[in-house]
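Input sequence (163 aa), recorded before submission:
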Amino acid sequence: MSDPLVVGAPVAELVQALTAAGQTVATAESLTAGLLAATVAGVPGASVVLRGGLIVYATDLKNHLACVDDDILRADGPVAASTAEQLAVGARQRCGADWGVGLTGVAGPDSQDGHPVGTVYLGLAGPSHSEVVRLKLHGDRWTIRIGAVHSAVRELLRCVTTN
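Predicted structure, token format:
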């Protein structure tokens, strides 16, 4: 039986691209609570590229584990582009990886701090740059969380193959 988390996303291609580049990845995940790391781990050979991940569901852990600046969390909140970028940088630094991926957002059922359900910020931090992608996803909690993971896989693959 194939891993249901990898269906619909180019996860094997991501693991191959990271392996070919001799690079590694780490995650700092809020709304996905480790699903991105678990998805990458579902590919045989992932142990060569997956360094680890931080589950930072609680706001205080975004600071304590992923080193998101307290001022950013106070000013912008846990669901923000600046938070996602710092999550990615924190994952990269804390886990000693070439790439860090940060995910934060609102899976529902209710909006959070004025952000509607389906608002997701994806931070990517690599050897030469960092960027944030704002996603607007639709569906129930599971659909939004899996959509965030699949978007992260696609965007990281884009970054790895264009750098």
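Checked by second reader. The mean pLDDT is 96.
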